[in-house]
Design goal:
alpha/beta, Spore Coat Polysaccharide Biosynthesis Protein SpsA, Chain A, about 15% strand
């Protein structure tokens, strides 16, 4: 007998996309599932699009808008009755054999408690899927976090419900990093399976995210890393290795924004954590030189500049 899979689908004002997403669930070759849709207070046509599906396996719950996707997912998990839980976002599409294939991986690797995989991006902002190792079974925590051997797309995650007894729920204080924090806590406590097969289509659209939102994501990721350090999942050396990469990425972000002073500060933080990484010193030097040229240009274009 097929085991029940509880699919958690949070949504907010995705009425124009959710029909296609839901259809990708209905079209699954594995049929014993319940689709738990939690609406974070949509004001568009979401409810009517959902009601067009006449399927007893679909549940629809509405909550007051919070904007915290972790809270919405937690709400959905509270309704879950299946022995397995899968995540899906309301603008992404599962391949038709996603559930069947991933469940077979868990059956073949009985010590594993979760499985995740690769995805194919589509849309104006899409990038090609990375080439990664075909299959990995075991503890993925450090290989993922410090070695960057895998990619994590939330809609590829399928896990045994029993892991919630140790992993608990998603941290709702982490607005941007709640999903990855939940995954890392699971990956630290349990063995898992990574498969490079493309099991989901990830919608990517070019959007004008504000600088503040992107900075919040960087800051929150570093906050999450400090939490893993304080809770002894990371050693001081491991934390420095991973955190230095994010200071480096933040430095690149500031360079793109033409904020060379802030870029230099982030590259210096990177270098303090990882002093032997030569690329950090090169970028720090680049930032300082850019600052000098910017100051020169400001002086040259200042009112009265060049007058005798």
């Amino acid at each position: 007998m097929q085991k029940l899979v509880s699919i958690i689908l949070p949504t907010y004002n995705r009425g124009h996309l959710i029909t296609e997403t839901m259809q990708s669930v209905v079209d699954q070759s594995y049929s014993n599932w319940e689709l738990i849709i939690v609406d974070d207070g949509s004001t568009d046509q979401t409810k009517y699009r959902i009601e067009e599906f006449n399927d007893a396996r679909i549940q629809y719950h509405v909550i007051e808008h919070s904007g915290v996707i972790g809270k919405v997912r937690n709400c959905g998990m509270n309704y879950a009755k299946g022995g397995y839980i899968a995540f899906l976002d309301s603008d992404d599409l599962w391949q038709s054999d996603k559930l069947e294939y991933q469940l077979s991986l868990l059956e073949e690797n009985f010590r594993a408690s979760f499985v995740f995989g690769n995805g194919e991006q589509f849309g104006n902002g899409a990038t090609p899927a990375p080439e990664l190792e075909k299959l990995f079974v075991g503890n993925v925590f450090l290989p993922f976090l410090s070695e960057e051997r895998f990619i994590f797309y939330v809609p590829t995650l399928l896990f045994k419900k029993d892991v919630l007894k140790r992993t608990l729920s998603i941290d709702e204080t982490l607005v941007n990093a709640g999903d990855i924090d939940f995954f890392l806590r699971m990956a630290y406590a349990f063995e898992g399976v990574f498969s490079n097969d493309l099991v989901v289509r990830i919608r990517k659209e070019e959007k004008s995210h504000s600088q503040d939102n992107e900075l919040d994501a960087y800051d929150e990721y570093l906050t999450m890393l400090k939490k893993h350090l304080n809770e002894n999942r990371l050693t001081t050396q491991q934390f420095a290795q991973v955190a230095s990469k994010y200071h480096y990425k933040l430095g690149l972000f500031y360079l793109r924004q033409r904020e060379s002073k802030r870029a230099a500060a982030e590259f210096l933080r990177h270098n303090n954590l990882n002093p032997l990484a030569w690329k950090g010193w090169i970028r720090h030097t680049q930032s300082l030189l850019t600052m000098m040229f910017e100051l020169f240009d400001e002086g040259a274009t200042a009112p009265g500049a060049g007058r005798k």
